[in-house]
Amino acid sequence: xxxxxxxxxxxxxxxxxxxxxxxxxxxxxxxxxxxxxxxxxxxxxxxxxxxxxxxxxxxxxxxxxxxxxxxxxxxxxxxxxxxxxxxxxxxxxxxxxxxxxxxxxxxxxxxxxxxxxxxxxxxxxxxxxxxxxxxxxxxxxxxxxxxxxxxxxxxxxxxxxxxxxxxxxxxxxxxxxxxxxxxxxxxxxxxxxxxxxxxxxxxxxxxxxxxxxxxxxxxxxxxxxxxxxxxxxxxxxxxxxxxxxxxxxxxxxxxxxxxxxxxxxxxxxxxxxxxxxxxxxxxxxxxxxxxxxxxxxxxxxxxxxxxxxxxxxxxxxxxxxxxxxxxxxxxxxxxxxxxxxxxxxxxxxxxxxxxxxxxxxxxxxxxxxxxxxxxxxxxxx
Length: 381
Description:
By secondary structure, the chain is an alpha+beta fold. It has two domains: 25-122, Immunoglobulin-like; 128-377, Alpha/Beta hydrolase fold, catalytic domain (Rossmann fold, 3-Layer(aba) Sandwich). It contains nine helices and 19 strands. It has helices at residues 2-24, 125-128, 189-192, 196-206, 240-255, 272-281, 316-322, 338-347, 364-374; strands spanning 27-28, 40-41, 47-52, 59-63, 66-69, 71-72, 77-81, 88-96, 99-101, 108-111, 114-121, 141-149, 154-162, 176-180, 213-217, 265-270, 290-294, 325-331, 353-357. A hairpin with a 4-residue loop joins strand 12 (141-149) and strand 13. The longest helix is centred in the first third of the chain and has 23 residues, at 2-24.
């Protein structure tokens, strides 16, 4: 009996001792609301969650495709520690008695077609420097702008980044990048989850990219495909292109000091936003000369590259003269096919740049890296 008790005591010490040490080495997640001590992230990239739900019978954490059972203590506090997570930003939910909800300790982020919790699993400081706020450089502004759409007969919202010098160099006009979110997200995504302002500020300060205006609008795909009865894949988000061409671009060029020629207009997007980018730009090459797809939802190879987008790729010489930047990127772990598309384009004589984000999936760290690679290429003609 004494040996049995001794063994139990040793196991308990090792189990709870390791947990306590891990908690002591953990730090509050940067994505928490003010003063919230949890979630935490430890040095092994495990996330620690805690919530007070004394009347709940079952609580889980749903993150990165895995649901972790939480353990209740005598005071009604539920806790769980994940396995090591991939670095970067991740949406997550708490599942309380079968109902998926936002962790009240997390800032809210629009993703997955709904408001979501989010947690940043940090990279090392040197690697993350390109999307980290730098107090020693000038910073641009991100403005919330509203305009009226006659097409939709409704108010719309976009966010517009202007570089730091925009306020002082009032005699200068700037090229414009239209930057799109993906399915189940909205116009807030690139600024909040994507950290685009930090990426732009850091690159401009370092002389890596030219100062530019960046416009982030709602791509009419902020829900999950299938939520609207009878909608086809071709219909999903398709109403955005006429709004962009006929209303958004004129609004930006009227209200900001924007250069208005095609050589100074770019468009890029992630996931379904990459699909919308190709749908918008490749049918309107009189208006765009820089194009980027980050993990784009692209399907055109199925019908043959020569038939895609009214045959835009059949005259490679003409395409290469008109399009100054043609960029495709994705994470090595997501299998979205951008590598195959890049090869097919190259085989057809179409100049393009392909970037592989090492070790990342269909997630925001992939798209931050893609934007970081894309920006130095554009507006350099």
